[in-house]
């Protein structure tokens, strides 16, 4: 029989309690509307981490799938999830995944296998898994940055096989067709080269930290930011430096943006939006100070106009005091606007009231002018 000295017990017991607490936090019933961290093994062999919060579908909750972009993870939506799906009287069930090679999700043995189409395939597997676990066939999709095109491609594929229907769409400064426009492709190529030069085993976390600070209006602070840069720290698991793997995989998203397979993905998205989701309820939320994919630059307007061209039925709400990572700048406002729209999507004039346009998307000539003037 093993005995522990009192001094060791003082160390062992708190550690054990902490481990038990973490274990309970990951398995607690969703009935209390707490945000729960989960993970799922995909058929492809990768693992995707995700969180859930709110009223489960089995009790009538409406599913809201929120997908992040680069270089974020599921925690980007923590504040929105708490405000939208955390209240006791919520009607919604938030699902926020971390894409493969992001956050707590696994990173493949070959990080160069991560491309927009491969991420979309992983997301389709994820939707299969969670729709089976939580028993739903309809969802609202919220997409940001790369998450918009990756999530839409996955939903288009799941719609084609008859398993999932997107009932509402809320784009948050995202893009769906950069691959078709030479201007955007050149910019993405430059971004990829820039990242390759700056993001290394040591500079990766610091670089991610700097990018997020640059693309938020208010400094989020250390405790907010650590959730996003920590996954890029160098640590070894199974003989692989996972942090470096994530850095390489993420860069490869940009490096393959111009590939024919990625451009074909955009074609599939356009066909889906113009057929299966034609005239579907859509509410754009556009950050006023986002120069990446928002209204603060011609480049950002070009990205927005590309999405709006596929969903011209959607009204646009302008979000003040918010930059690209608007979810960190204004989570409560975004959640309130989402709820207003979700509660009555058939009356967009009141549930998603149109603000004065900050981007001129009225004609193809205007979009081309945006490109030329950059």
Protein described:
The chain is an alpha/beta fold. Helix content is 47%, strand content 16%. It is built from 14 helices and ten strands. The chain has helices at 6-27, 78-85, 116-134, 146-160, 182-198, 203-214, 222-229, 242-255, 260-274, 298-310, 326-329, 331-343, 348-351, 364-373, and strands at 36-41, 47-54, 62-67, 92-97, 138-145, 165-174, 236-237, 240-241, 283-287, 315-319. It has a six-stranded mixed sheet, with helices on both faces. It has a two-stranded antiparallel sheet with strand order 7-8. Helix 3 packs across helix 4 (146-160) and helix 4 (146-160) crosses helix 9 (260-274).
Number of helices: 14
Low-pLDDT runs of 5+ residues are 1-31, 198-202, 367-374
Instruction: Give the helix/strand class.
Output: alpha/beta
Task: Tell me, briefly, the overall form.
Answer: globular
On the 0-100 scale, what is the average pLDDT?
85
Radius of gyration (CA) equals 21 Å
* Major sheet: 6 strands, mixed
Tally of DSSP β-strands: 10
Oligomer: single chain
Strand content: 15-25%
Q: Fraction of residues in helices?
A: 40-55%
What pattern of helices and strands is seen along the backbone?
Answer: HEEEHEHEHEHHHEEHHEHEHHHH
C-alpha termini separation: 74 Å
Main sheet: which strands, in order across? 1-2-4-3-5-6
């Amino acid at each position: 029989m093993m005995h522990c000295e009192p001094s060791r017990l003082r160390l062992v017991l708190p550690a054990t309690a902490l481990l038990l607490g973490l274990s309970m936090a990951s398995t607690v019933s969703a009935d209390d509307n707490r945000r729960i961290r989960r993970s799922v093994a995909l058929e492809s062999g990768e693992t995707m981490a995700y969180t859930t919060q709110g009223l489960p579908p089995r009790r009538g909750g409406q599913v809201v799938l929120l997908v992040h972009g680069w270089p974020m993870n599921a925690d980007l939506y923590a504040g929105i999830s708490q405000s939208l799906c955390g209240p006791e009287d919520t009607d919604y069930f938030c699902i926020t995944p971390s894409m493969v090679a992001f956050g707590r999700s696994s990173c493949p043995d070959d990080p160069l296998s991560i491309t927009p189409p491969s991420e979309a395939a992983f997301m389709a597997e994820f939707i299969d898994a969670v729709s089976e676990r939580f028993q739903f066939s309809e969802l609202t999709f919220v997409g940001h940055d790369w998450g918009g095109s990756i999530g839409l491609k996955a939903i288009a594929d799941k719609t084609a096989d008859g398993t999932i229907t997107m009932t509402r769409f809320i784009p948050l400064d995202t893009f769906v067709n950069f691959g078709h426009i030479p201007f955007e492709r050149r910019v993405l190529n430059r971004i990829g080269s820039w990242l390759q030069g700056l993001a290394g085993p040591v500079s990766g976390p610091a670089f991610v930290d700097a990018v997020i600070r640059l693309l938020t209006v208010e400094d989020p602070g250390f405790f907010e930011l650590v959730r996003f840069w920590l996954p890029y720290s160098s640590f070894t698991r199974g003989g692989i430096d996972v942090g470096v793997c994530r850095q390489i995989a993420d860069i490869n998203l940009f490096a393959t943006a111009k590939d024919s397979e990625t451009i074909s993905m955009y074609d599939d998205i356009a066909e889906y939006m113009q057929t299966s989701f034609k005239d579907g309820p859509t509410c754009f939320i556009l950050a006023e100070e986002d120069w990446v994919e928002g209204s603060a630059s011609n480049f950002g307007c070009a990205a927005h106009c590309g999405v709006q061209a596929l969903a011209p039925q959607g009204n646009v709400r302008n979000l003040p005091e918010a930059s690209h990572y608007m979810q960190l700048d204004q989570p409560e406002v975004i959640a309130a606007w989402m709820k207003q729209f979700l509660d009555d999507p058939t009356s967009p004039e009141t549930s998603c009231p149109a603000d004065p346009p900050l981007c001129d998307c009225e004609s193809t000539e205007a979009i081309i002018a945006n490109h030329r003037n950059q």
